[in-house]
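User: quick one, sequence for these tokens?
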């Protein structure tokens, strides 16, 4: 009987994959019927519920599932005295769990990976030259230097965020709402970012945050440095509103932080973008050329650029590499073919959007 039940699971899963492949064959269908249809309805419904609680319902749910699995593992051990039936029972549990997780993940959030790309929605070109990357980097450096000097009155001093992380989580919501009102790219339904109860494990895993695909809560690792915390929080809310691809969430998160009135937040968004540009530029230039670019950056700005690097290095262990490998392949399975490198396509979006709608003014 148990074997028959597993067959039903497998049959249902195959049918689900067939239906999914039909729908995702046309991004317009996904956009119209899923993202702007079912997903928006579920998002509004679940957000109304989770916003009633100051803590993460999703994190508590994960803890409950963990306890259930431990209980289930113990039950299997007690009910199956022989080794072979016990192994089969564990394999069935793993198979059913993985199938249910994937189907629920895909239905409740993951289908957003197959919607119409943001480049198409905004009519932006794709790909960029070395010169375009250098030009953008120099624009960001010029404006970031100006912001740093304006805030600290000292080119040698790094910028210290004057807000606590609870305040920054709230301000991230305002930034997303401001961007929604000014662009009309998406609707904002009072989504909130919450500090994750598992911030320390997330740090050792190498993650700044995540969106819970079942409760759709934006979870932010509260251990990370404050220098780019506002962008990370905005990034996770961008996932909430339907931007599943990491590059697009980076782009929306950056613009939301950039739209903040406070200069500290604008500076934070620039630091975030500058880190990506410098990393890309390092691979495009000779050591002499790259060093010349670095020399144009104020020492105080360099202090803030190094904060994230030093932070992640202090927590880097073998678990970081393992989870990055798993996540890299998970992204590839979910229509982000570049895997973790898909985060870098943010630069592509920024270069071409900046040409169309200048983001960096350079004066304050």
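Assistant:
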């Amino acid at each position: 009987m148990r074997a028959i039940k597993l067959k039903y699971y497998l049959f249902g899963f195959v049918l689900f994959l067939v239906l999914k492949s039909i729908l995702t064959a046309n991004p317009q269908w996904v956009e119209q019927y899923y993202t702007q249809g079912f997903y928006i309805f579920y998002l509004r419904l679940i957000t109304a519920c989770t916003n009633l609680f100051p803590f993460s319902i999703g994190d508590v749910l994960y803890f409950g599932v963990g306890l259930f699995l431990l209980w289930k593992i113990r039950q299997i051990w007690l009910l199956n005295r022989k080794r072979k039936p016990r192994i089969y029972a564990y394999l069935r549990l793993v198979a059913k769990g993985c199938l249910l997780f994937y189907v629920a993940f895909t239905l409740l959030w993951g289908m957003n990976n197959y919607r119409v790309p943001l480049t198409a929605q905004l009519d932006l070109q794709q790909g960029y030259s070395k010169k375009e990357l250098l030009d953008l980097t120099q624009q960001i450096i010029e404006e970031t230097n100006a912001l740093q000097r304006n805030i600290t009155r000292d080119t040698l001093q790094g910028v210290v965020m004057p807000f606590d992380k609870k305040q920054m989580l709230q301000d991230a919501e305002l930034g997303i709402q401001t961007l929604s009102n000014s662009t009309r790219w998406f609707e904002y339904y009072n989504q909130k970012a919450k500090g994750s109860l598992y911030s320390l494990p997330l740090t050792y895993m190498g993650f700044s945050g995540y969106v819970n695909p079942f409760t759709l809560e934006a979870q932010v690792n509260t251990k990370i440095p404050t220098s780019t915390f506002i962008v990370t929080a905005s990034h996770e809310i961008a996932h909430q509103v339907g931007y599943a691809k990491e590059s697009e969430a980076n782009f929306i998160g950056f613009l939301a932080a950039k739209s903040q009135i406070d200069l500290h937040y604008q500076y934070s968004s620039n630091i975030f973008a500058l880190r990506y540009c410098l990393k890309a530029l390092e691979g495009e230039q000779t050591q002499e050329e790259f060093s010349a670019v670095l020399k144009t950056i104020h020492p105080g700005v360099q202090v803030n650029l190094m904060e994230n690097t030093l932070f992640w290095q202090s927590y880097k262990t073998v678990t970081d590499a393992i989870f990055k490998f798993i996540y890299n392949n998970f992204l590839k399975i979910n229509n982000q073919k570049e895997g973790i490198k898909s985060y870098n396509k943010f630069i592509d979006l920024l270069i071409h959007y900046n040409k169309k709608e200048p983001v960096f003014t350079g004066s304050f």
